[in-house]
Write a structure and sequence with these properties.
The protein has two domains: about 5-85, Brix domain (Rossmann fold), CATH 3.40.50; about 105-185, Rossmann fold (3-Layer(aba) Sandwich), CATH 3.40.50. By secondary structure, the chain is an alpha/beta fold. It contains three helices and ten strands. It has a ten-stranded mixed sheet with strand order 2-1-3-4-5-10-9-8-6-7, with helices on both faces. The protein has helices spanning about 15-25, 40-50, 115-130; strands at about 5-10, 30, 55-60, 65-75, 80-90, 105-110, 130-135, 150-160, 160-170, 170-185. Strand 1 (about 5-10), helix 1 and strand 2 (about 30) form a beta-alpha-beta unit.
Amino acid sequence: MYEIVISTTRHVTPPVRRLARELSYALWSAKRVNRGGSSFSELILRARSLGARRLIIVGRGLHGNPGRIVFFDIGGTQTRPLLLLRLRGVAFPEKLRSIRRPSARILVVSVGRCSEESEGIAEDIAYAVNSSYLGCLDEKDLKTFREARVLVVEHVLEEHLAYVLKFIDNSQEIGLKILVKSTKVYY
């Protein structure tokens, strides 16, 4: 049984498939499912048959690069969208399949410019990945998480970049960075 199922939109490119695969390794209790020719409703049925409560769809953007990530709540009788992340880019780990699956549920924290807005987005991301949000921390406080994987939401002040999502394991970055241009919350 898995809590999260990750798949892609139709007509994807290798970078989109790789992001879906790397996310399935970075998140706790996540399984990547090959969509193939399945419709969205068939994908939801397949995810529910695996016991999942969340469905994450990685979509294509400009020039075939990953362009968006959409989070859905499929735990109840109805499927409802939770969060949309519009991406500016992705930085993958240098080695393929270098990310090991975490042994326990990941934690979500925010760093950088801590405002009500940035903490709200970090809470929304934590809810979307079915995890706990611990609050706003300093960069040096991240070294205290030795046994847990942490998803860090960093608020950035650049023109076409709002947030950087990065994963920390044993006080070290694991290499996957997701550059978020904008977000949309549905609930």
